[in-house]
Amino acid sequence: MTYKTFLSVLTDQNTAAAPLAQAAALAEHFSGHTEVLCLGVDRTQTGYYYAGANAMIIQEAMVRAQEEAAEVQTHAAEVMERSGTPFSTDVAIAPVADLGRHVAHHARFSDLVVLGKPYGEGIGVEAEPVVEAALFEGRTPVLVVPDDAEPITQPKTVLLAWNESIEAMTAIRKALPFLEGAEVARIVVIDPPQHSPERSDPGGMLAQMLSRHGVKCEIDVLSKTMPRVSDILNRHATDTGADMIVMGAYGHSRFREAILGGATRNMLEKATVPVFMAH
Fold first, then answer.
1. C-alpha span between 189 and 148 (Å, rounded)
2. Which of 6, 49, 77, 243 stands 20 to 30 A from 154 (CA)?
3. pLDDT 10s digits, 4-26
4. Orientation angle between helical segments 229-240 and 262-270, nearest 10 degrees
5. Residue of 146, 114, 145 lying closest to 130 (CA atoms)
6. Average pLDDT, whole number, for the chain?
């Protein structure tokens, strides 16, 4: 198993540096190809305009979205040409509510989607649905890269957030190309349930499975000493010098995650190293 096709989805050239650099680095490392989808986003909410003005407003918004997409495409092509790796660019224009269809179509034919953080200052409202579309509709793993992160091709230490869930196992399986080359994969179990099938050996069966792929594993059982699991993972990543975190995405419904926060959202807001997710 390896990665050959990488996808990056851009809506703003001001936030394009980190995902483009990461995608180019991975394409070089895995001898792959990067596709850059440049989205022009129509953020118009037509229900707020008086009758008769909608057509004019929509037309103006579409022209602006086309211009923005063209600017992003030009910028992306310049960056990727300097990288010297194979790439292609595509342009799409869509309202915020319809972004998912375009992202999912491209993600479906990719091995890994590389994106910037969807939350933070200067991040558009479209960033979150882009991540969700790749994960849910595209069914493709996503690598979320912090703005100031250096491109990484072969992480030495990877944290695996393990809670025995299907989402966590899916993410770990899809991250195998990274894990097989890592010096160590640290299986992190936080407050293991007393009545789970793995209660006597938390993370043991996962470590056994991964070891058969040549992955060197260590198991870290941690107490929930902080209110948020994401805070514990981020602190442990710092303490162990981890280069990447692998975790399942959105264990609960997305609606519940949006209302309550959830480990996924908190992690994406505060992560200081790339986060590999799958659902």
1. 28
2. 77
3. 999 999 999 999 999 999 999 99
4. 40
5. 114
6. 89
pLDDT in tens, 22-55: 999 999 999 999 999 999 988 765 555 555 556 6
Distance CA 7, CA 28 (A): 14
Strand pairing partners for 190? 222
Three-state DSSP at 107 gives helix
Query: Residue 162: which region, alpha, beta or left (left: phi > 0; alpha: psi -120 to 50)?
Result: beta
Cα–Cα distance measured from residue 230 to residue 261, given in angstroms and rounded to the nearest whole number:
11
Closest CA relative to residue 126, chosen from 72, 179, 83: 72
Helices 204-211, 166-174: inter-axial angle, 10-degree rounding: 20
The residues, any chain, with a CB within 8 Å of residue 27's CB and separated by 6 or more, are 6, 33, 34, 83, 85, 86, 87
Distance CA 15, CA 13 (A): 5
**Token pair 């096709």 is at which residue?**
5
| Helices 17-29 and 54-83, packing angle to 10 deg | 40
Residue at token pair 């000493």: 225
Q: Which stretches of the chain are DSSP H helices?
A: 17-29, 54-83, 99-107, 127-132, 166-174, 176-179, 204-211, 229-240, 254-260, 262-270
